Amino acid sequence: GLIGLLSALMGIGGGQLSNLFMTFYSRPIHQAVATSSGLGILISIPGALGYVYAGWPHMAEYPDVIAFQPPLAL
């Protein structure tokens, strides 16, 4: 969770931070790269959903983008 939050705030991939943390805690670089590549998808999905949730209230400000979103079920 911490790596996902930091990578979203800094605008970089979670894999880069995972590599940094794992090599800092003396994991071999090959193992750190392999693990962070597998974790990349797990880090990116909550980040993307968070951005969607944060931008949802502002969708009325951009009517040309609303056409690409599914209709709201009220």
Q: What does this protein look like?
A:
This protein has 74 residues and is an all-alpha fold. The protein has one domain. The protein is 69% helix and 0% strand. The protein has helices at 2-10, 14-24, 29-55, 63-66. α1 packs across α2 (14-24) and α2 (14-24) packs antiparallel against α3. The longest helix is centred in the middle third of the chain and has 27 residues, at 29-55. The model has no long low-confidence stretch (mean pLDDT 77).
Strand content: under 5%
Q: Report low-confidence residues grouped into runs of 5 or more.
A: none
Computed CA radius of gyration, to the nearest angstrom: 17 Å
Q: Find the structural class using helix and strand composition.
A: mainly alpha
Quaternary status:
single chain
Shape: elongated
Q: Supply the number of structural domains.
A: 1
Helix and strand string, N-terminal first?
A: HHHH
Helical segment tally? 4
Could you estimate the helical fraction of the residues in percent?
55-70%
N/C terminus separation: 32 Å
- Average pLDDT across residues? 77
Number of strands: 0
Largest sheet: none
